[in-house]
Amino acid sequence: MTPAGSAPTPVALRRAVELEIDGAPVTVPEGSTILQACRARGIEVPTLCYLETLAPVNVCRVCVVELEGSRPLVPSCSRPVAPGMVVRTASERVRTSRRMVLELLASSVDLSTAGSDVRRWIEEYGARPERYGPPAPPADRDHARAGDHDGAEVGTAATVTQPVKRDNDQYVRDYAKCILCYKCVEACGEEAQNTFAIAVAGRGFDARISTEFDVALPDSACVFCGNCVGVCPTGALMFVSEHDLRSRGEWDESRQEVTRTVCPYCGVGCNLDLHVQDNRIVKVTSPLDHDVTKGNLCVKGRFGFEFAQGDG
Questions:
Q1: Spatial CA neighbour of 275 closest among 297, 251, 299
Q2: Which pLDDT score, from 0 to 100, does residue 223 have?
Q3: d(CA 106, CA 97)
Q4: Across the chain, where does the E strand assignment appear?
Q5: Strand 208-211 to strand 171-173: parallel, antiparallel, or no bridges (unpaired)?
């Protein structure tokens, strides 16, 4: 309420910005990004490191577009619109850049469990990762056992890979699939959880996601909310249940149903999307557009579903 005798607080109105995208006029609110303007126009721009609930970090460079008057291509996920902008999202220069980025990523990490959009983009842009030589060496699966810590690595300095890490009952970390998109670091940090259990360690070819002091997850500050798992675009972070099904060749999304419900553990009202295969919950996600969760959950909401199927 406004105190008696005081003037009401003025509401700042955002003015409309007019620009041109692929030859068509587009009007969006001031402060919007080029990516948001493209989506308002119904134009698909591929993204990997971007998520609407996280601050853009500009690291994957798949979303670049051509901006008239700009020498380099610009990241559409973070570049704000300006009046009179002329943007091209599908020029030969843009397509060549995106194709090369996808080729470099697919030649250096395992994208076999990335989302279907990633595999579709590789086909649509004609990406040929084999141009850069044989695939990167897979992680040493023989080290995928409880107790492996983040300091354990295999391979040479130029092709360093980390073994699959399974040191808890909630999720598996397979950094041979990691593209360093920073989403997990953001979700663990001030964008969502504020736990700061993980960060990017090392430089160059040695850059990797790591816990503080390279300790195992149970010994770190991790609270196992799984919000890092929820934002991972490649499957580098994966539910133990999903990982085990995939390992046995039994994971089949075509047989899965997704049911939205409300978390039963407390009164906050978080929404859960239960992914069910063969009448069993195989993983839990949360909708990004829900006012309460915005895709985030606690350890109970994301991993505490065993009681519903007699596994607890």
A1: 251
A2: 95
A3: 14
A4: 16-21, 24-29, 64-67, 74-75, 86-88, 171-173, 198-201, 208-211, 237-239, 256-262, 271-277, 280-285
A5: unpaired
4: its two tokens: 């008696």
Encoding tokens for residue 159?
């092709």
How confident is the model at residue 152, as a pLDDT? 41
What is the predicted pLDDT for the residue at 147? 40
pTM of the model: 0.84
Q: Phi then psi for 135, rounded to 5 degrees?
A: -60, 155
Kind and range of the H or E run holding 40? helix 34-40
124-128's contacts with Cβ under 8 Å and 24+ in sequence apart are 125/95, 125/98, 125/99, 126/99, 127/99, 127/102, 127/103, 128/103
Q: Which residues of 16-49 are buried (b: 16+ CB within 10 A; e: fewer)?
A: ebebebeeeebebeeebbbbbbbbebebebbbbb
- Assigned token pair, 147: 């107790």
Q: Which has the minimum average pLDDT: 39-48, 106-115, 133-142?
A: 133-142
Q: How many CB atoms lie within 10 A of CB 76?
A: 29
Do you know the residue count of the chain? 312
Residue 44 main-chain phi, psi, to 5 deg: -80, 125
Of 196, 159, 191, 158, which Cα lies nearest the Cα of 176? 159
Domains of the chain: 137-249 (3.30.70.20)
Tokens of 209: 């996601």
